[in-house]
Design a protein that fits this description.
Blueprint: H1 20-33, E1 46-54, E2 65-68, E3 73-76, E4 82-88, E5 91-98, E6 105-111, E7 116-122, E8 130-131, E9 139-140, E10 148-152, H2 153-158, H3 164-168, E11 174-178, E12 184-188, E13 196-200, E14 203-204, E15 226-231, E16 245-250, E17 263-271, E18 276-287, E19 290-301, E20 305-306, E21 309-310, E22 316-328, E23 332-347, E24 355-370, E25 377-395, E26 398-419, E27 422-439, E28 447-461, E29 465-480, E30 487-503, E31 506-517, H4 521-525, E32 527-530, E33 535-538, E34 546-558, E35 562-586, E36 589-611, E37 616-629, E38 634-635, E39 643-652, E40 655-664, E41 680-693, E42 696-705, E43 729-737
Parallel strand pairs: 1-7, 13-16, 33-36
Antiparallel strand pairs: 1-4, 2-3, 2-5, 5-6, 8-9, 10-15, 11-12, 13-14, 15-16, 17-18, 17-43, 18-19, 19-22, 20-21, 22-23, 23-24, 24-25, 25-26, 26-27, 27-28, 28-29, 29-30, 30-31, 31-34, 32-33, 34-35, 35-36, 36-37, 37-38, 37-39, 39-40, 40-41, 41-42, 42-43
Length: 738
């Protein structure tokens, strides 16, 4: 047993993390060793230069990512659209060009002794953009094996909310679980808890949002530069058990490129529906190879206002700050960051509305990457993440219960040189966790958890067909006190995918996956009254792991005036861990047993954009999930209803005006003691305008949500029978970047 003692103000840190010190020491040694090879470069060659040009306006396209796939080298286009790579060895290479607002281009270039110059036109696109969470390398959504969504830029500013769940609600296949405005979490394809993985820059949050309805995700969406959603289970690079998918909040907190001049952004937003105000900002500057970054944000909100009046004790406030430094070389970087976030929010209706929760988290991240290596390994990246999390549940001003969750995480990804058509990645992952509860609501004894994984991901490409396959071995172990049994799980998951280009503008993606999920800590060991879930929970320490066999099929098109995607999914799950109502009550709470069952989840998502005129664009989104507990011939619990969202927006230069109508059906397929919910319709309006001023770019956004002040209830709200959703809400946001 190795003791890890770190004393940070404001958070108690447990020193009984088994194997945590050994994992952390190994991680840091590996990370510190990686920069030693960052300067390794291939043989010297000729430069590759070019200009990126808008195919419609003929103007240069700045800020685009230009990526040499074989060399794992990348750069950004300059303000005049130019880009350049020095010393490219002789050979044939494929350039990937990606930038927001344009279709991704793949261009083949052949390098000999003379410089290569190429002017490349980019076509403006309506729907698809670049996503980095689906594969080892950046990939266009149009060519992803899994269905994805990306929220960034104006769209992210328009949908800004105080919680991640609220910001993503309405994206294809994504709903919001909530307990008032403070605790909120995304639900993907009807899956919640451990079955949806929430990441921050590729690392786990370290919070307890998957455990309970009154626990929220400890991240402020205002600090994100983009949010990526990958739907479906074939996400083996980040972990198994991800039956619904993953959400990756990307904040670029650790610089990965040199800074030629100071840059940054500041955002202010305010809302009337809960007297909300928030401010966030970050700055970055460089000194040679060293790059420094710092950021901070704060948010405060009063009680939520509904058409029936305010929801008492639904207020929330929080703050976040971080700082980072990186060393950036010609072919890689190494960086470290430290962050602290603290939140305080009320829990309506529990214990008479006297409960507040105070999540605090301290984070240390170390990341490194090296590219353009000779030999069988062409590039590699590694990261280590330390999370020290604690929240207190305060009853009438006094601490009633404290939850402590300390985690250490390490992963490494290595890209091997192409073997004929075969290109891919392999790597490993390690994880330790120490969990404890103290006070009035001790749901389990202290539990230690360890995890290890080894994985590979391979792709082979032909002119019209791409093939992907991967596998992952996972080891998970729990050690519990109070005489509860220890558990160990050894599981293997795998996936295979095919992407077919029916034409240059149409693709079909098919993905098959067999995924296993070890039971979560709470499913094994919790026992006692849990008001945050409105349940008296009884865990089952003998639960077997879940096994899901799933298929995803997606059709995508990208035409001159229309683009979109339609996806169908089906997951058959053996040993599905069900929260089963025992039919009796304890401490005035329904008794819930965790039992193994047989589950089926299937449904579809669809999204399309249509350019009606040069300035007017229409869009429509629809999603549906059908869940069934097969052995009980009963509906799955807490499944979101069928939804349709349609809208139009007008854009002229930097001005954008639009509106959307959201229609949700009633949900009558419920699992006791869950109650049905009626359908509803909402009207949302928005406007945005961007303008330059000196070296800055300014954006003003205004939204009017629930314009008709509709009284409606979210089926996934734990307090839906007691409180409807927010009424008419005017929001204004101002963002400036430099």
């Amino acid at each position: 047993m190795v003791e890890l003692r770190i004393n940070w103000p404001g958070i108690r840190v447990m020193n009984r993390t088994r194997r945590g010190g050994r994992l952390l020491a190994t991680s840091l040694v590996a990370l510190l060793a990686l920069p030693g090879v960052l300067g390794a470069a291939g043989q010297r060659g000729a430069p590759v230069r070019g200009h990126l040009i808008d195919s419609v306006t003929g103007k240069p396209v700045p800020g685009a990512l230009v990526f040499v796939e074989e060399l794992q080298r990348e750069t950004r286009s300059a303000p005049d659209g130019s880009f350049a790579f020095a010393d490219v060895p002789p050979g044939t290479y494929h350039l990937l060009i990606a930038v927001e607002g344009y279709a991704t281009r793949h261009v083949e270039v052949t390098v000999a002794a003379d410089p290569v110059t190429s002017d490349i036109t980019l076509v403006p696109e309506l729907h698809f953009t670049e996503v980095v969470s689906v594969s080892p390398e950046p990939r266009s959504q149009f060519e992803s094996y899994e269905p994805t969504s990306v929220l960034q830029g104006r769209e992210l500013l328009r949908d800004m909310r105080g919680t991640l769940g609220a910001a993503l609600d309405g994206q294809p296949g994504v709903a919001q679980r909530e307990f008032g405005q403070g605790p909120s979490r995304p639900v993907v394809r009807g899956f919640d808890g451990d079955r949806v993985l929430i990441l921050e820059n590729g690392s786990r949050m370290g919070d307890l949002s998957s455990q309970s309805g009154d626990h929220g995700v400890v991240v402020n969406p205002a600090t994100a530069s983009r949010v990526e959603i990958v739907r479906g289970p074939a996400t083996l690079l980040y972990g198994t058990g991800v039956l619904g998918g993953l959400v990756n909040v990307i904040s670029e907190s650790i610089p990965t490129a040199r800074s030629q001049k100071p840059s940054g952004s500041f955002t202010f937003d305010a809302g009337s529906g809960n007297a909300e105000a928030a401010l966030s900002g970050n700055v970055m500057f460089g000194a040679g190879p060293l790059v420094f970054r710092a950021g901070a944000s704060g948010r405060t909100a009063g009680d939520v206002k509904t058409p029936q009046g305010p929801v008492e004790n639904s207020q929330a406030r929080g703050g976040f700050a971080d700082a980072a430094v990186s060393w950036v070389g010609d072919t890689g970087y190494v960086g470290v960051s430290y962050g602290y976030d603290g939140t305080r929010y009320g829990i309506p209706y529990v214990e008479g509305g006297s409960i507040e929760v105070t999540p605090r988290r301290q984070s240390i991240d170390v990341r490194a990457e090296g590219q353009s290596w000779d030999g069988p390994i062409t590039s590699a990246r590694a990261s280590a993440a330390i999370r020290r999390y604690q929240h207190d549940e305060i009853d009438a001003g006094a601490i009633a219960t404290s939850f402590i969750n300390d985690t250490n995480e390490f992963d490494v990804h290595a890209h091997h040189r192409a073997l004929g058509r075969l290109r891919g990645t392999f790597g490993g992952w390690g994880f330790t966790r120490a969990f404890a509860v103290e006070g009035a609501e001790v749901l389990s004894p202290p539990v230690d958890q360890q995890g290890f994984a080894a994985f590979f991901y391979e792709e082979a490409a032909w002119p019209r067909i791409h093939l992907q396959f991967g596998g992952r071995y996972d080891y998970t172990a729990y050690q519990a006190g109070n005489g509860l049994p220890d558990r160990t799980f050894n599981e293997f998951s795998g996936s295979i995918g095919v992407l077919v280009h029916l034409s240059p503008s149409t693709t079909v993606a098919v993905s098959l996956a067999r995924v296993t999920r070890a039971p979560a800590l709470e499913e094994l060991y919790f026992e006692g009254p849990h008001p945050g879930n409105f349940a008296y929970e009884i865990g089952n320490a003998s639960l077997p792991p879940e096994t899901s066999s799933g298929i995803d099929v997606s059709l995508r098109w990208q035409l001159t005036r229309s683009s979109g995607e339609v996806s169908y999914f089906r997951n058959a799950i053996s040993n599905y861990i069900l929260r089963d109502f025992a039919g009796v009550f304890e401490d005035e709470l329904p008794v819930i047993n965790y039992v193994s069952s047989k589950g089926l989840m299937q449904g579809f998502e669809a999204h399309a954009d249509v350019q009606l005129t040069r300035s007017l664009t229409g869009e429509i989104t629809a999603d549906y999930v059908y869940g069934q507990v097969v052995n009980l011939d009963a509906p799955m619990p807490r499944i979101p209803p069928f939804r349709v969202r349609g809208g139009v927006h007008y854009q002229r230069d930097a001005l954008q005006i639009g509106g959307t109508v959201v229609v949700a059906a009633g949900q009558n397929r419920v699992f006791p003691p869950e109650l049905p919910t009626s359908g509803y319709g909402l009207l949302n309006l928005f406007a945005a305008y961007s303008f330059p001023r000196g070296r800055t770019v300014n954006t003003i956004t205004a939204t009017l949500n629930n314009a008709t002040n509709e009284l409606y209830r979210n089926h996934l709200s734990f307090i839906k029978q007691l409180a409807p959703e927010t009424g008419r809400n005017v929001r204004v946001a101002y963002s400036v970047g430099f």
